[in-house]
Amino acid sequence: MISGARDRIGAAATRARAGLMLAVQAGLAAGLAWYVAHDLIGRPVPFFAPVAAVITLGSSVGQRMRRTAELVLGVAVGIGLGDGLVILLGTGPWQIGVMVLFAVLVATTVGGGAPLIVQSASSAVLVATLTTSTGQPWTRFFDALVGGGIGLAVMTVLLPINPLSVVRRAADPALRAFTAGLHEAALGLSDGDPDVIQAALTRLRSAEGTFAAFRTAIDAARENVAFAPARWRARGALAQYVEGAPQLTYALRNVRVMIRRAQVALNDRERVPEMLPASVRHLGDAVELLRMEWSRGVEPVATRERALRAAAESGRAYGTGVGYSGGVVVAQIRTSVADLLRATGVEYAEATRQVRAAVGWQARPLGARRRTARARPVPPPSAPPEPDAG
């Protein structure tokens, strides 16, 4: 119980550290937005300025420019409709309902996303309930424009986040979940336990969420680096993540196919050579090494070595004789190794060559490989062709 409480406290502290920069950005933007609109421009009650600044910073990372445009448009729609309908209908519960109905309808008609729809509706409500005069609605729109601009200035010039820290923070749980799923699958294969294999598959399905967060963080980092001069020097270290993330997504998909087929192999009581779970375990080690080497910003040499060792072990397993599903598992391991090599910066053709060399196929033509596979004393019902290592 004490350990669980410590874990929860530690997780809460991690979340607090992750949200500290956003909190500081939002506080600074709100204060500056009010100061600029009230003290410098002379607006008496620039309510929408700090609100717009905070909403701009709270928009989904990686899409703040588009979300800010939607925010300003949403404020314009909401204020315009609110002022117009207050003149025509007055104020009251049913009038507010009509205002929101029209605001949402207009926002959806123009194809706006959730920020535009929500901001249109909330702006209409605020105009109807918090203002006593409907004169000069453009001033409230101007407040929102000032706030949105201040928010963008804070996040790109005055206090930009560190894009590398954001990406590393998102990549860490994704790669840890990937590693854990592969290690669990290796254990299930070694023990011949389909239930453990299923647990590994479930773990990797859940990892899709962490990989989605990883991709979102990369989008945010690209945006931040593009618009924040203070973060331009992070481009080099960030390139490893940006270029490697798509290949890791391919590897995750191929590994999930591999694990599903491994479960079929166990259910069908196919022979599983001891090198096969070793190969899967080495693949998991390679993913963990990639996480560590990316975090340190070094060339992922150890990752490549361990990934090729996984390919070599899969070749040994195939050579001793596997069933049909076992052959598919081997093929998917090799393809996943190629994906992982490409995630480390190896070009497609070179990754394919290295995988073939690790398996021992570099000097053998494709036809010879197939004839050898058919001549093995324990052949699969239909020997799989050489996998596409890309």
Automatic annotation (TrEMBL):
Segments for region (Disordered): 366-390
Annotated localization: Membrane
Biased composition (Pro residues): 377-390
Any one Pfam family match given in the protein's UniProt record, by short name: FUSC_2
Key words of the record: Membrane, Transmembrane, Transmembrane helix
InterPro entries the UniProt entry points to: Memb_transporter_dom (IPR049453)
Record membrane topology: Multi-pass membrane protein
Main location: membrane
Superkingdom of this protein's organism: Bacteria
Transmembrane segments: 20-37, 43-62, 71-90, 96-129, 141-161
Residue ranges annotated for the Integral membrane bound transporter domain, each copy included: 32-154
Protein name (record): FUSC family protein
